[in-house]
Amino acid sequence: MLADKYFQRLGFTPEQAKVISSKHCKDHLDQIVEANLRKITFDNLSQHGLPLTASIDVHQTATKILDHGRGGFCFELNGLLAAFLEELGYTVQRLPAIVHSDERKFNHPPSHVILVVSTTSDPDEKWFADVGFGEPAIHSLRYELDTEQTTPEGMTSRIVQDEGNVVNLEWKKDGEWLPRLKWDFEHPGQPLEAFQSGLDIVLDESSIFHKKLIVCRIDRNEKVSLAGSRLKRTSPRFGPDATVTVQDLETTEAAQKALKEVFRVPNPQDLDLERSKQAAPKVWSTM
């Protein structure tokens, strides 16, 4: 049973949790997604010194995220969210997706999991949800083609057909539509255990995740990321008034302090930045 611990991790009071649990609707789904992105970091800290390695086992992930206050990869974050939503009464499909690379290519196997969620209040509607990406939409998106959707933080997204049943998720950035994810729109979904090969990809020594630390936390007004020793804030997140500030943290101790105070990561004293220092500056440069 995840619900009590999960609601507590997201910062909901018992009264708020009772209301959200009482009706499985788009509005309550969005409250859960937004709180998740605000409270739980997307990060690869388990590859850079911190204990509790990444796993697709939901019980192991629940221990890491709910009991120990940590974050994790998409397979952990979206996998645990899917189990939680199903416990509440939502119907959830887990779909494999390919992440668009920095070279503007979809040139590798699926290494991401996305969620397609149906509510009991309107079972014919489907919603795209993702809390396991560096910068996903802060609310769920209607699961349909060619519909521009702007979420409360100002991100504008759309799902467009690529070829056959394959679709791309795009976002509008500086007036240009840019691809982010690719997947089979009509995919029936698969159990989380089927994503082990995807997790193996991100855990491999050749992976960008192994080469450099990345930690992200977002809310409506601000995105904060730590890429190696570079702390970056963007606020507001979109629009002509968006301001970016970057701070280079000179020591591991300074990075540990940022993890604890900015990202609320408990016990970051085992952080290891040696590989991050050796990584090319372009790694995670867009985060």
Automatic annotation (TrEMBL):
<dbReference type="GO" id="GO:0016407">
    <property type="term" value="F:acetyltransferase activity"/>
</dbReference>
<comment type="similarity">
    <text>Belongs to the arylamine N-acetyltransferase family.</text>
</comment>
<protein>
    <submittedName>
        <fullName>Hydroxyarylamine O-acetyltransferase</fullName>
    </submittedName>
</protein>
<dbReference type="InterPro" id="IPR001447">
    <property type="entry name" value="Arylamine_N-AcTrfase"/>
</dbReference>
<dbReference type="Pfam" id="PF00797">
    <property type="entry name" value="Acetyltransf_2"/>
</dbReference>
<dbReference type="InterPro" id="IPR038765">
    <property type="entry name" value="Papain-like_cys_pep_sf"/>
</dbReference>
<dbReference type="InterPro" id="IPR053710">
    <property type="entry name" value="Arylamine_NAT_domain_sf"/>
</dbReference>
